[in-house]
Amino acid sequence: MNAGDGANARDDAAKAAVRDLRRLKAKRIALGVLKPLGVFVPVLLIATFVTFLLRHISGLSPAHVKLGENATPELVQQVEHEWGLDRPFVIQYLDWFGGILRGDFGESWWNGTSVTEILASRAVISLSVAGLALVIGVVGGFVLGTLAALYPQSFLDRAITAVATFISVLPPFVVGVALIAIFAVTLQWLPAAGYVSIEDGGLGLWLSHILLPAVALSLDTVADVARQMRVGLISAYRENYVTGAIVRGLSGPRIFFVHVLRNGIGPTLTVIGMKFPNLLGGAVVTEAIFGLSGFGQYAADSALRGDVPAVQGALVVSIILVVVFNVAVNIVLNRVTPAAARGV
């Protein structure tokens, strides 16, 4: 065997190793997507079935929503037949669930409009507020947590920890009222209520209407992200590989971004995945304070009216949004953090 054959063999072995590594990474990414989806399917089935069962047990009917006190047994039977509610429960559930798979959430008992169309228009408002609140929470928490970790046990660290503790216990509705009083009533910098889409008012007007509710909703996320960033980064700084990097003379920024951040950000990403459902849930109170006709307000109003199709549609959309977001967080977690990529 000559030198050329040996070099070709080494090249082939190196290429095979690269291919194996790529397949391993693709497998890990696929598992990071499939695991949450494996949870999503049974959760969706159980949640929708239980919701349908509760409606069946409660005795709610579109006849009572439409007719009110004028509902007679004959009229109730007629309306329920029109809506197909006199069929067996399982048939009703399968028919409704089949509509969900097609993107059809049925019609509202209250006014007969398409629940899908209403949810789509309302979800834009809620996702705008929740999305901006998430960005504020992540960016603000990342900055505060990083500063606290870079200067542990210092006055700055203690001050950031105190601020994070304080804002974490502030209810969003209290913060919302305070923001309206300061920035909308006193200073008149921002509108106190309402929503304007980007198509109707442009980016500036859209942002001005969702900024205050987003800030009110984001403080808890800022506090949690800051605390997790601080703990994760300080823990990573104490690892042996960081000590080795310092001994080798690597620069501070390289040590932070290459070694510390990648290994210390894992808990923070996990917390971000857990905060998104809280932001959607907190939107109900925030939207009421700021006069936003969003997803949460629509779900609350529909529940008070007994509009079962609207409530069921809101539940399903919430589950889908939460699962999709957590799938994205898991993908980022597997790509960024070495421990998660190894399945640790």
TrEMBL record:
- Is Transmembrane helix tagged as a keyword? yes
Q: How does it sit in the membrane?
A: Multi-pass membrane protein
Every copy of the ABC transmembrane type-1 domain together lies at 123-333
The answer to keyword Acetylation applying to this record is no
Which CDD domains does the annotation name? TM_PBP2 (cd06261)
Q: Which UniProt keywords apply?
A: Cell membrane, Membrane, Transmembrane, Transmembrane helix, Transport
InterPro entries in the cross-refs: BPD_transp_1_N, MetI-like, MetI-like_sf
Q: Name one Pfam family in it.
A: BPD_transp_1_N
Q: Which residues cross the membrane?
A: 29-54, 123-151, 163-191, 203-223, 279-299, 311-333
PROSITE patterns per the UniProt record, alphabetical: ABC_TM1 (PS50928)
Family, according to the entry, reads as follows:
Belongs to the binding-protein-dependent transport system permease family.
- Please identify the protein, giving its name as recorded: ABC transporter permease
The organism of origin for this protein? Arthrobacter ginkgonis
**Upper classification of the organism:** Bacteria, Bacillati, Actinomycetota, Actinomycetes, Micrococcales
